[in-house]
Amino acid sequence: MVNLHGKTALVTGSTSGIGLGIAQALAQAGANIVLNGFGDVEAALASIRTLGAEVIHHAADMRRPDEIEAMFALVAERFGGVDVLVNNAGIQHVSPVEDFPVQKWDDILAINLTSAFHTSRLALPGMRAANWGRIVNIASVHGLVGSAGKSAYVAAKHGLVGLTKVTALETAATGITCNAICPGFVLTPLVAAQIDAIAQREAITPDAAQARLLSDKQPSGQFVTPEQLGNLVLMLCSPFGDQVRGAAWAMDGGWTAQ
User: How far is Cα 209 from Cα 198, in angstroms, rounded to an integer?
Assistant: First the structure.
């Protein structure tokens, strides 16, 4: 069991899906939790409280450095600082490069990449003072490979893997580690809705629709789950993760093995 009692974990983009699953895993390990995001905040808070953890929410827009700084000020006031930082906030847009909306490009780079720089720069001084900390950047298989139509997302996630490596090198002689997790298709409510839509549109079973969605990319034919990602984060937060530094850990059902 991983013991994070007395530690505080900030997970960006954590009111649903992957981020909430990771926050729940950290809460089960005893950490205080800071949620961030624009989903169903009350439901997310309740799900953490049922695990016995102290939890707060801050609605920082991850495009805005001033709001990120305000979130860290609140965490410092309430809990003393951030011990575990999980950079999960992300958005997506699909379009060819020549048609890609400039504002969409700017927003994706800001939320998926630049926000992780801001949170890391704000978390690191306290982690250095304590000589312990964990930064986990939720990248994607698209931090390792490309897909047509996803230029901004792929660029941001490749950048996030690069930021991970540099942060790991700069903290290599300390008790701080920084790593990236690169999921393939993850079973979230949004993806579940895609499966239902495919099943209805093509008059096939949900199992057949899932196979259709996964067939081109994820050889296992199975989704990664938020719970699996949460448990990988816990491993990285444990003593077993002390020498995992600068990794881009694929959890992708074989996607990047092809």
Answer: 6
